[in-house]
Amino acid sequence: MNKEIDLFTIGFTQKKAEQFFEILIKSGVKRVIDTRLNNVSQLAGFAKKQDLEYFLAKIGGIEYMHILDLAPTQDILDAYKKKQITWDSYEEKFNHLISQRQIEKKLSIDLIDKSCLLCSELKPHNCHRRLVAEYLQSKLDKSIKIHHI
């Protein structure tokens, strides 16, 4: 019987730092995998790359990784933000992109177990972190349980 793999997703928007870190710690997250294309924006506040890496380690003993292959291209992101394409079109383009990148070959089961995919969107519905999680769930042999926290 395959061990169930827990893969979490979280967005930092509309969360105070205390709430964000408490959610991660209470969920048992061991590693945050940053899926953002741009993780150094001043708008990211406590979630800017260097700050986030420091806070995760100091507050929760949580590892930080940034994997650009899990982010959309600037073209796809801009087209969606500017409403030049619908969410359905974005989803199709992004799924094609991560399939071409063969992300399932770059992430081991051990790496994603108890990891949390990070993006800025508050909810996972229209966010690429959900698409990454679902893609990995469909491509990897192990049973992956997705938790949107």
How far apart the termini lie comes to 27 Å
Strand order of the largest sheet: 3-2-4-1-5
Low-confidence stretches: none
Query: What structural class results from the helix and strand content?
Result: alpha/beta
Report Rg: 15 Å
What is the H-and-E element order?
EHEHEHHHEHE
Taking the sheet with the most strands, its summary is: 5 strands, parallel
How many beta strands in the DSSP annotation?
5
Morphology call: globular
- The overall average pLDDT, rounded, is 93
Helix content: 40-55%
Number of helices: 6
Strand content: 15-25%
Count the domains.
1
Which terms summarize this structure?
alpha/beta, about 150 residues, globular
Write a compact overview of the structure shown.
This protein has helices at 17-27, 49-60, 74-81, 87-101, 109-112, 128-139, and strands at 5-11, 31-34, 63-66, 115-119, 144-148. With 149 residues, the protein is of the alpha/beta class. It is globular and about 40 Å long.
